[in-house]
Amino acid sequence: MGVTKCMCFGRPLAPGSDRAWSIIYFISSWMTFLVAEACVIAGATKNAYHTKYLSSQTFSCASLRKGIFIAGAVFIVATMVLNVYYYMYFTKSVSSPPAHKANRSGSNIGMAGYA
């Protein structure tokens, strides 16, 4: 996100499908990041609550909430994959030359030229 300046600053994206896909991947990657962060924080909170009342000698892996951490890890990997696709489509959209509109001032199809 730092390299692409979060699509807020820098050169504008060229219109087209690459721009649309980069926006979709940008929003999706931030959504999966927020879900991953929520899962990891929730797992850490649950873990802290359950280990708070256990002595250090009886600490075991059973006190961890593995499902929450696994879900967080899955969303972290999904965020990474979405960021790679976002970067690919972003660079395609920035590096492609902008489409120019055809100059139709010389068109005289079925019309008489008026001066």
TrEMBL record:
InterPro entries named in the record: DEAL/Modifying_wall_lignin1/2, DESIGUAL
Membrane topology: Multi-pass membrane protein
Cellular component per GO, a single term: endomembrane system
Domain of life: Eukaryota
Subcellular location: Endomembrane system
Any Pfam family matching the protein: DUF1218
Segments traversing the membrane: 20-45, 66-88
Alphabetical UniProt keywords: Membrane, Signal, Transmembrane, Transmembrane helix
UniProt similarity note: Belongs to the DESIGUAL family.
UniProt protein name: Fiber protein Fb34
Organism: Arabidopsis arenosa
